[in-house]
Design brief:
The complex is a heterodimer. Chain A is α+β, with helices and mostly antiparallel strands. Chain A contains eight helices and 15 strands. Among the domains of chain A are: 85 residues, ApbE-like superfamily (T-fold, Orthogonal Bundle); 115 residues, Roll (T-fold), CATH 3.10.520. Chain A is 30% helix and 26% strand. In chain A, the strands form four sheets. Chain A has an eight-stranded antiparallel sheet with strand order 1-2-6-7-10-13-14-15. A three-stranded antiparallel sheet of chain A has the order 3-5-4, covered by helices on one side. Chain A has a two-stranded antiparallel sheet with strand order 8-9. By secondary structure, chain B is mainly alpha-helical. Chain B starts with a helix and ends in a 5-residue tail after the last strand. Classes of the chains: A alpha+beta, B mainly alpha.
Chain lengths: 301, 139
């Protein structure tokens, strides 16, 4: 018997988010499910005026009252940043502005001096957490773009499981996909394509796992005819040249953070870091480098 | 004659009894149905309440990113196809630096996003099979 599903797509976090659940459920349940994503968007998205991270940014240099969830999010981001020695850093926002990836603030290659000046503001170790109070250094700015959508999907997944929804898939803009499976539907398939040629690179089968991907072949700024990808290396101050990274993990937020962090690695560094991360997280993945070489962990296919 | 009247009376009473029983069943069924509906509505409301978690009412306006969903330590960048479209629609004078083109692309993207948002508000549900999902790094 072929399984049927009800699917609804809405525009949140500036991407199309699709929730697909068993056709037995009533349509009204979608409102409840999307409300969870909207809640996270309003309260924890640094781009949303009035969110906790927005308030922290606007009051840089002073302690700000936050909730427990904000502290948990920050602690997870700091853990990943520590592991990558700062090649993943959520205080990278000033560098993003400098390169012109935020609104239309600049459209020319920044000078080395400009980059060096801005880099002084980028250091997650200046994030101070004291109970439910958070402070960042004056002039610093946190960006949640690398994980907040994934965090919202994690929260949504928890709620769905509480409601007994155990056969579903959430596709958040194609870059974060969460598969929920039960005995009657053992796995979901995810197609991974080359970002430029559209050729299918992998057909993944995932079950109760997340697939996260970072790619910049189609997301870049064009300055003087040269294309610069949007994923920046906070240490060098320059965009990474890799093309795509895909990670399978247990939680979307961890997967999204790690896929972004690994974007700044070389092929050797990629495999080495995954190996080390595997001691703490259940992950596997692949990388498509600037020369179109595909590097992947043994168990990825 | 009296016997016939008696029989008719008894038959009438019997039929009246039968009608009463049928009517009673119907009323009972209607009541049960109504109760079930009320309970269902009540349950739905109960489920919905804890989900709506309104944070501080802040209008989301100026701080919107161009493409904040791009998962990275990054801000949104433009998709090349969008740029092309924007250039087609609003060609710039040759003296205009390329950077201006990018800005146009951003505006175009924003307009598209607003339109998309409006479309999404319809909240259309579709029936699908367990088809493979496409991953993409563009959103």
């Amino acid at each position: 018997m072929e399984l049927l599903y009800k699917a609804q797509t809405r525009f949140l976090f500036h991407s199309h988010i699709k929730i697909k659940i068993s056709a037995f459920y009533e349509e009204s349940i979608f409102d409840e499910l999307f409300a969870i994503l909207e809640h996270v968007d309003k309260k924890y998205n640094s781009y949303q005026a009035g969110s906790y991270f927005d308030i922290i940014n606007k009051n840089s240099g002073s302690f700000v009252d936050v909730d427990k969830e904000t502290v948990n999010i920050l602690n997870q981001a700091i853990t990943i940043s520590d592991f990558f020695n700062g090649t993943y850093d959520i205080t990278v926002m000033p560098l993003i502005r400098l390169w012109g990836f935020y609104k239309d603030e600049q459209r020319q290659t920044p000078s080395i001096k400009e980059i060096e000046d801005v880099k002084k503001l980028i250091d997650y170790r200046h994030i101070e957490i004291n109970g439910k109070k958070v402070k960042i250094k004056k002039g610093q700015e946190i960006i949640t773009g690398s994980f907040i959508k994934a965090y919202a999907v994690d929260r949504l997944t928890e709620r769905m499981l509480e409601l007994g929804i155990n056969d579903a898939i959430i596709n958040a803009g194609g870059s974060t996909i969460m598969a929920i499976n039960n005995e009657s539907h053992l796995r979901w398939q995810v197609m991974v394509r080359h970002p430029q040629t559209e050729e299918v690179l992998f057909k993944l089968n995932i079950a109760n796992q997340a697939y996260s991907t970072s790619s910049q072949s189609k997301t870049f700024v064009s300055i003087d005819g040269k294309e610069y990808g949007h994923i920046l290396n906070p240490i060098t101050g320059f965009p990474s040249t890799n093309k795509q990274v895909g990670i399978i993990s247990d939680k979307c937020m961890v997967g999204d953070m790690i896929s972004t962090a690994l974007f700044n690695e070389s092929a050797e560094g990629f495999l080495k870091k995954i190996d080390l991360l595997s001691e703490h997280y259940n992950i596997k993945g692949f990388m498509l480098d600037s020369d179109n070489n595909i590097i992947y962990t043994q168990d990825f296919r | 004659m009296n016997n016939i009247v008696q029989i008719l009376k008894k038959t009438g009473l019997f039929l009246f009894g039968v009608l009463l029983v049928i009517w009673g069943y119907k009323v009972n069924a209607a009541n049960t149905e109504e109760k079930a509906k009320e309970e269902k509505e009540k349950n739905t409301k109960e489920v919905e309440h804890p989900i709506v978690l309104p944070p501080a009412d802040e209008p989301k306006t100026e701080e919107q990113p161009v493409k904040e969903e791009v998962k990275s330590l990054t801000a949104p960048a433009k998709v090349s196809t969008d740029k092309k479209k924007a250039e087609d629609v609003k060609p710039k004078a040759s003296t205009t630096p390329q950077t201006k083109k990018s800005a146009t692309a951003v505006e175009s993207k924003k307009e598209n996003q607003t339109e998309e948002k409006k479309v999404e508000e319809v909240k259309q549900t579709v029936i699908e099979k367990a088809t493979p999902e496409e991953s993409s790094g563009t959103e």
